[in-house]
Each structure stands twice: as C-alpha cells, then as structure tokens.
Specification:
With about 260 residues, this protein is mainly α. It is built from 12 helices and 2 strands, in the order ααααββαααααααα. It is about 65% helix and about 0% strand. A two-stranded antiparallel sheet has the order 1-2. Strand 1 and strand 2 form a beta hairpin.
C-alpha cells in the first residue's frame, strides 16, 4: 500500500509520562485510523477491497487478531462491509446520512422532541439551501428538480406515496445546494419528516385537489426563481412555503412527539 502513513511515529509514547491521564490508543485503533484516513483522502474509494490480510499485516507490522479488530472498528462505523466466509475481504462502503438518522431519531425521542421541533429545524435549513441553489445550481440541477415535479410528485399524489415523493423533492433541493453540512442534516431529518407527513394523512387529512394544485404552484414558482438566480427571493419564497405548510400540517398536532410518528 504505497504512500500510506507509517505507524511507527504514531505509536510512541510521544513524551507522555506514565502518570498521564491520557489513554494511549490501542494498536488496532491506530491501524483503523490510518485506513479511515485513506478513505477520507480518497486513496480507498467506494467499492474498493482492502488488501488481503497477509499484505496488511506485513504493512502495519501487526498480528492477525489486531488487524481483524481494526477492521471490526471500521465495520462498526459502516466504512467497510465484510462478507463472512468470502475470500474477497472487506469492501469500502462510504456511508450517507442514514448512518446518523437512526441514532438521531432515538436522541430526539429521548429528549421529548415534537414534530414541531423538527419542522422548525427544517425551516432553518431549506431556505438557505434554496438561496445557495439559486446562486450555484446548474441547468442539470434544475432539470432534475423539474422532472420530479413533472413525474414523481403527480404520481405520488395519485397513489399512496405522496409523502415520500414530496419530501424527496425537499431533500434533493438541499443536496443540490452544494453545502455538505446542510445536506447531511436534511438527510438525517428526512425519514422523520416522511413519517410525519404520512402520519398526517392517516389522521384523515388527505391532500385535496385544490391543496395539491396550490402546492404545485408554489413548487413551480420556486423553480422560476431558482432559474432567475435570485438567491434572496428563493430563500424568502421557500421560507414562506415551509411556514404555511407547517401551519397546515401541524394544526391540532403541535404536541405530537417524534416517537409517536416513528412507531
């Protein structure tokens, strides 16, 4: 594995006395850290297999149990996938927002967060993403969103997938803004938001044709603003859109907890 960072300088005591309260990392953690950095730096890419055990053991100068412990660390972080009994070894799997969605949902449940909390958080994320998208979005980005409006959302309204298709549009808008942090947060909240929307429908609030057409007009107006490259107007319009949607969807459900929706 040419070009990888030698472990020897990382494993020394680094001048720390025996009485130091700082725990020295285990060798397996150091190996995992080096491999993790290689994924982050792009030396190991999505779908790549790690070199075989013999090569890694020789490279790092570690035993098989130590190497396997290091791989288990990466597996627990969803950075590699190990197929038991396979001769191909561990394969790199770059995780997406779903890696934090489940624990984040649990934390929201434990904290007693309401769906209103989640909705307000989205109102702080999506309008800024709309501004950024207006400023940096490409023609291909806009065409992708237009296609979702023309195909996916109408099909969703005519079936039982309206919650999924509308929220997919919201998520894709943030992802196309080019801001990785906003995209990760939006992805984290995505599943909760979809379930909330579906929960509202189950409460006997199906989307009427008039409401559907009003929603589509708002979406189309957003697309016009995005194509005009007016970031401030895009942010303002999308904030108003989310405020109205929140008021309608939360009416009478303001105190519903995240756990009630997650089921």
């Amino acid at each position: 594995m040419a070009g990888s960072t030698p472990l020897a300088p990382m494993m020394g005591p680094d001048g720390m006395g025996a009485a130091s309260a700082v725990r020295s990392p285990k060798t397996a953690e150091l190996v995992a850290g080096t491999l993790r950095r290689m994924v982050v730096d792009g030396q190991l890419k999505e779908g790549d297999f790690l070199p075989n055990e013999a090569e890694l053991m020789a490279h790092f100068g570690v035993s098989r149990p130590t190497l396997r412990e290091a791989v288990r660390v990466l597996e627990s972080e969803r950075l590699v996938e190990v197929r038991r009994g396979s001769r191909t070894g561990a394969r790199v799997r770059v995780p997406g927002p779903e890696i934090v969605a489940r624990p984040a949902g649990l934390l929201l449940e434990l904290s007693g967060a309401t769906i209103a909390d989640v909705s307000v958080a989205r109102s702080g994320i999506e309008p800024m993403a709309a501004r950024l998208l207006a400023e940096v979005g490409t023609a291909a980005d806009f065409e992708e969103l237009e296609k979702m409006l023309a195909d996916d959302i109408p099909a969703g309204w005519q079936s039982d997938r309206f919650a999924e298709t509308t929220q997919a549009f919201h998520l894709r808008l943030v992802q196309l803004s080019g801001n990785a942090t906003l995209a990760i947060i939006a992805g984290m909240l995505h599943e909760i938001t979809v379930r909330h929307t579906a929960f509202v429908f189950k409460e006997g609030r199906p989307v009427s044709k008039a409401d559907y057409e009003k929603l589509m007009r708002s979406y189309r107006k957003l697309m016009q603003i995005l194509r005009s490259r007016d970031g401030a107007a895009a942010e303002s319009h999308w904030r108003k859109h989310l405020d109205v949607a929140r008021e309608l969807s939360l009416q009478g459900l303001e105190d519903v907890k995240v756990r009630d929706v997650m089921g």
